[in-house]
């Protein structure tokens, strides 16, 4: 069992750290927020001594700047040579690549390993990991990742985990827009939306988004739309992921016009309704009262 320093005990990090502990690992949780520390037994403020003692260091932080700062001020300065550093945050491809090279030049083994599956997947230990880094390090990380997740896909060298995450989430964002527009049109044409949902679910319009984020209250009882648009997956996170996909599209030179539209629409919506589930965007399409 490994001695693990886990940095970032938020919505995702706390349950991930907990399943690692439940699997028998020696986990010390760290967070800058006293409130977050309270929710994880034995958690402390970020500490060089704990980093220095760890065989594995995991970060689950909001954005690239946070990850870069923790690498600069804590990990590169204190981690012992050969320590395995796994960043599970969703950040941009270029930063992930640069951080991995820098970590390797300091004698550390680094993986980018963003996740899909949300808080429910984190609690259940069923996350899906998209991993970039050396194959030998991925093999070394297997027991750790498999404690938190049920699927690991190794895409290639440093940054490729984030590349997969950005591309995957862009598909989700565009699909979300397609599902919401389809229902808006069906509603405007006075269709029975229960029947329309059943048709789509059994036909070519079927998707994860349709089945889990149908935007019409009451059609899918467990969907956020049936629960006041409580997340689910918050609009601000969708906007962030689509912006990361746009950054990747720009630096690779690949046009992604639908991804760009989805990024623009969710980013604007996030200015006022960032904490709602992304399917709440439907209310603006149909000019419905706000929830
Ligand atoms: P969160 O904001 O709930 O948690 C982040 C935690 O990091 C907070 O507790 C914060 O206090 C802590 N933190 C910030 N700076 C720190 C520092 N310098 N040192 C120590 N702790 C610090 O975020 P989250 O929802 O858990 O998401 C984490 C990452 O996972 C993000 O990159 C997000 O995009 C990604 N993600 C989130 C979801 C989701 O559904 N929430 C799903 C998949 C991926």
Helix content: 40-55%
Would you tell me which CATH topology of the largest domain applies? Rossmann fold
Let me know the largest β-sheet.
5 strands, parallel
Provide the residue-averaged pLDDT: 97
Instruction: Output the helix-strand order.
Output: EHEHHEHEHEEHEHEHHHHHH
Description:
- The protein is an alpha/beta fold and 291 residues long.
- The chain has 2 domains: 3-157, NAD(P)-binding Rossmann-like Domain (Rossmann fold); 163-285, Orthogonal Bundle (N-(1-d-carboxylethyl)-l-norvaline Dehydrogenase, domain 2), CATH 1.10.1040.10.
- The protein has 13 helices and 8 strands.
- The chain has helices at 13-22, 34-38, 48-53, 64-78, 93-105, 118-124, 135-148, 160-188, 193-201, 208-212, 235-252, 257-273, 281-285; strands spanning 3-7, 26-30, 56-59, 84-87, 109-112, 115-116, 127-132, 149-156.
- It has a 5-stranded parallel β-sheet with strand order 2-1-3-4-5, sandwiched between helices.
- Helix 5 links the parallel strand 4 and strand 5.
- Helix 1 (13-22) runs parallel beside helix 6, helix 8 (160-188) crosses helix 12 and helix 11 runs antiparallel to helix 12 (257-273).
- The longest helix is centred in the middle third of the chain and has 29 residues, at 160-188.
- The termini are far apart.
- The structure holds nicotinamide-adenine-dinucleotide.
- Nicotinamide-adenine-dinucleotide binds next to helix 4, helix 6 and helix 11.
- This is NAD-binding protein.
- Residues 159-283 form the 3-hydroxyisobutyrate dehydrogenase-like NAD-binding domain.
- InterPro entries: 6-PGluconate_DH-like_C_sf, 6PGD_dom2, 6PGDH_NADP-bd, HIBADH-like_NADP-bd, HIBADH-related, NAD(P)-bd_dom_sf.
- Pfam families: NAD_binding_11, NAD_binding_2.
- Keywords: NAD, Oxidoreductase.
